[in-house]
Amino acid sequence: MSARPKKSFGQHFLHERSYIERIVKSISPRPDDFLVEIGPGEGALTFPLLTAAGKLTAIELDTDLLPHLQAKAAGIGELSIIHADVLKVDFTALAQRHGVSRLRIAGNLPYYISSPILFHCIDHAAAIADMHFMLQKEVVDRMAAEPGSKVYGRLSVMLQLACRVEPLFDVPPGAFRPPPKVDSSVVRLIPLTAEERHDADPERVHAIVKAAFAQRRKTLSNALRQLMDADTIRLADVDPKARAETLAPHDFVRLAKTLP
Fold this sequence. Notes:
The protein is α/β, with parallel strands linked by helices. It folds into two domains: 7-191, Vaccinia Virus protein VP39 (Rossmann fold, 3-Layer(aba) Sandwich), CATH 3.40.50.150; 202-258, rRNA adenine dimethylase, C-terminal domain (Helicase, Ruva Protein, domain 3). 35% of the residues lie in helices and 20% in strands. The protein has eleven helices and nine strands. The chain has helices at 17-27, 46-53, 66-73, 91-97, 114-123, 137-144, 154-160, 202-214, 220-223, 230-235, 249-258; strands at 13-14, 35-38, 55-60, 78-83, 103-108, 128-136, 163-171, 176-177, 184-191. The strands form two sheets. It has a seven-stranded mixed sheet, with helices on both faces. A two-stranded antiparallel ribbon has the order 1-8. The longest helix has 13 residues, at 202-214. The protein is elongated. The protein starts with 12 loop residues before the first strand and ends with a helix. Belongs to the class I-like SAM-binding methyltransferase superfamily. rRNA adenine N(6)-methyltransferase family. RsmA subfamily. S-adenosyl-L-methionine binds at residues 12, 14, 39, 60, 85, 108. Keywords: Cytoplasm, Methyltransferase, RNA-binding, rRNA processing, S-adenosyl-L-methionine, Transferase. It catalyses: adenosine(1518)/adenosine(1519) in 16S rRNA + 4 S-adenosyl-L-methionine = N(6)-dimethyladenosine(1518)/N(6)-dimethyladenosine(1519) in 16S rRNA + 4 S-adenosyl-L-homocysteine + 4 H(+).
């Protein structure tokens, strides 16, 4: 029996088998993986992943979905369910508790809270091997945008400073029940290694990026005037007259390092 999608949880259940198979193939789960699925829903991805890996941890907030997931998993593999808001799940502690170095995370993310979930995941990037997410296509376009693009912004910079962003393929509304009003995309995120990550204070980087894009049509000297003056911006080898949308991610790192 199919569950009724709940608007309050932003539920759109994936049902088209060809796209399910493409996602699972992209993830390429292995028996030694510690897989974590965010928002399993009716289990469209859960059970193929469980079949391939033998075990999986799912994070689900909707209590009504849990009995179906547990019952169907019984003959497939070892399914552990964390009944919680994903934003309150400590992925670093989860990896440590199970004695694994890094998690592999997947999920069809609720569109209305996709950005908070992405930021939550990158806060735990050191404990994550990779992430495969289904998101609104517009969000994936923003995640992968390059400087100068109309959709390049805070999300682009913060994710690209933490991960390699690889858009994989689009998924039409008809692949879901009920169909969303927008196209979706599947994206792969691979956290940067310790050697690849920047060494600036993360809170300073976030403050610079947030302020720079708060009023994106302003020059940096105006947008950042509460944080630094034009001379300090020049010390980072950045033009104070430039706009945030023209800067590469590591330009913001240099600005953070010159922050008084």
